[in-house]
Amino acid sequence: MTHAKPIAVLTRYAHLIALLVVLSALRSAAQEPFSIAEHYTKHEYMIPMRDGVKLFTAVYTPKETTLTYPFILTRTPYSSSPYGENQFPPSVGTQGERLFREGYIVVVQDVRGRYMSEGEFVNVRPYIAVKKSTRDIDETTDTYDTVDWLVKNVPRNNGRVGIMGISYPGFYTSMGTIDAHPAVKATSPQAPVSKWMDGDDFFHNGAFLLPHAFNFYAWFGKPRPKPKSTMDIPFNHGTPDEYKFFLELGPLPNANRKYLKDSVAFWNEMMQHGTWDSFWEAHNILPHLRNIKPATLVVGGWFDSENLFGALNTYSSIEKQNLNNRNMLVMGPWSHGQWGSDWGDSLGHIQWGFKTGLFYVDSIIVPFFNYHLKGGSEPKLAEAMVFETGRNVWRLLESWPPINVTSTNVYLTKSDRLSFEPPDKSRTGESEYDEYLSVPAKPVPYTAEITHWYNPAFPVEDQRFAARRPDVLVYQSDVLAEDLTLAGPITASLFVSTSGTDSDWIVKLIDVFPDSVTSTNRFLGAGYDERTLRLKGYQMMVRGDVMRGKFRNSLSKAEPFVPNKVTKVEFVLNDVFHTFKKGHRLMVQIQSSWFPMIDRNPQKFVDIYNATESDFQKATQRVYRSAPWSSHLKLPVLK
Q: 115, 435, 498, 522: which one has the fewest Cβ atoms less than 10 Å from its Cβ?
């Protein structure tokens, strides 16, 4: 934690960043292919935990025997394969390969109850604050016991341990940071799971992310009665079209009737806990991120549709609850975990102009671990190392969000316009609204692609396919006369009514490119082919999210809408750091379905997880834009 200073103070870093990016590119080009088997020896251990359960652990040790080395530990539910001391992974991604090249003792462990480890697996196992006996175990104790065994039993280690992991392994990294073993000096929770039901993975503001949850648990959630080394098999949809598959699935109870057959325990638990309750509270790690001793580097992607919330809120929770901890944030222009697997030069159509992951690996993550684990020179790291999309540059800031941000309203107005001026107070407003008919049988798709698993690039996809639908409201600003930079969370403040008793409200903030734009890009899902794709009028989604209307006041207490009564619905969209360039326009789209990314709302106040086909009904939706009911977005404008 550091004290915040205005962004202008940090402009001196601009030339340094540019130089580091160039040097990183040159180093990358000069490196030869790296063989783990050639440079490392592999051993496999069953490490005992305090309650007697043993966890399968693969340890990769440098063959060079004249030095001592620190550990990098990753704990995963996704398998530490390949199994066998003579078997080595063919690829470990860009981030992993650099850490191998640096000469760390790399440790990968199957968490309790997964693959080759003993014990019972519990999803996002709750933290036990007061442990009364060796039977009181959680992921903090399993991490502690693992680290203790490693430093005492693996030859040629220097007694220092770093922990890192992406997504679910990011959750285990966060847990290993709590009540950490003294040998743990630095951790990097990356896209970590943090608070299910609210904003991570399977729920956003109480709305259910159907394909994320179903596709994941149909693969991941089946029972494992005994240790195994074979991989779980992904679910076969029988069609490449997930829109068709999930529409034909019908109401959520059909998932069990048709496919899961009550074989997935956590799916059933999600269906039984449709509101925030003690079950979800127990699985929320954020309140427990206290008394953190290791240095922490939280990493996330601005376009991560799974755990953007987790990265931002893990960072902010550590920041608020640990005043003396060295806690830093990295946010790049990446999809879920992209920084660990490729160099991040582009996302879908949108190119960033250089390999953003090179700067991250060479100038952030490797120097961070080298300093804390090897005693290397202290790197020039800032509190927040964040990528500004639109301008496509890295920024080193001394706080996130920056302090020099002004909350600025942009209003929905007549003639489908956005305006920074509030509505005329002289107008009474009762008839000042726009409306559409929301039909659950024909929901608005979240993507124009035909796919059975989401394209990681959909958060920047061109939204013209949605803007053309009659059940999507579209508001657009005038052409910007100067650059407009947003840095921080966005608040959607809507005044709405529905003819039903429940409704979803999806808000998307979009950067509309001018019709004159020409750029070299690649198509969604296709390889880079040097073609020039004209982005004339491209509608790049910058941020989009959903509020399940019945949770507008509380996730723990659902409330119906009074049909056709004007009601305020306000919610926060995750942070952005984006510049709308001069000549571009702002656009806001509002809709009531986003399928199948968000499950269909019946538009009737019922328990959606036990809904029947007859519960689904059409609804007339209105969004008001008069002076007393001035629907608007609160934008964090950087000065």
A: 435
Distant-in-sequence, close-in-space partners of 52: CB < 8 Å, separation ≥ 6: none
Burial of 126 per CB tally in 10 Å (0-12, 13-18, 19+): middle
- 118-123 long-range contacts, CB within 8 A, separation 24+: 118/46, 118/53, 118/54, 118/55, 118/227, 119/49, 119/53, 119/55, 121/77, 121/224, 123/266, 123/283
- pLDDT at 261 exceeding the cut of 70: yes
| Pick from 453, 449, 458: nearest CA to 214 | 453
Hunting for tokens 């326009």 — which residue is that?
585
CA distance 616 to 161: 53
Chain position carrying tokens 């790197």: 379
| Cα distance between residue 349 and residue 347, in whole Å | 6
Measured CA angle at 439 (ends 509, 626), to 5 deg: 50
**Which residue's structure tokens are 């979800």?**
280
Helices 168-177 and 139-153, axial angle in degrees (round to 10): 80
What are the DSSP calls for 75-110, one per residue? EESS--PSPSTT---S--HHHHHHHHHTT-EEEEEE
**Distance, C-alpha 238 to centroid of its chain:** 28
In whole angstroms, give the CA distance from residue 324 to residue 152. Answer: 29
Q: How many CB atoms lie within 10 A of CB 531?
A: 10
d(Cα 237, Cα 253) in Å, to the nearest integer?
17
284: nearest Cα among 366, 345, 195: 195
Q: Which amino acid is at 330?
A: V
- Contact between residue 371 and residue 70 where contact means Cβ atoms under 8 Å apart: no
Give the pLDDT confidence of 517-531 residue by residue, as tens digits: 655 444 444 444 333
The tally of CA atoms less than 13 A away on the side-chain side of residue 109 is 32
Q: What is the dihedral of CA 184, 189, 192, 194, to 10 degrees?
A: 60
Instruction: Tell me how far apart the alpha carbons of residues 129 and 115 are, in angstroms, rounded to a whole number.
Output: 27
Q: How many CA atoms lie within 13 A of 74 on its CB side?
A: 25
Q: How far apart are CA 217 and CA 400, in angstroms?
A: 34
Side chain identity at residue 78, one-letter code:
Y
Region 301-317 average pLDDT = 98
Helix (H, G, I), strand (E, B) or coil at 620: strand
State the Cα–Cα distance between residues 547 and 492, nearest whole angstrom.
Answer: 10
Q: What's the sign of the alpha-carbon dihedral 562, 563, 569, 574?
A: positive
- The angle at the Cα of 116, spanning 115 to 119, to the nearest 5 degrees, equals 85
3-state secondary structure of 177: helix
Which tokens is 199 given? 């904003």
* Reported pTM: 0.93
pLDDT digits (tens, 9 = 90+) for 436-478: 999 999 999 999 999 988 999 999 999 999 999 999 999 999 9
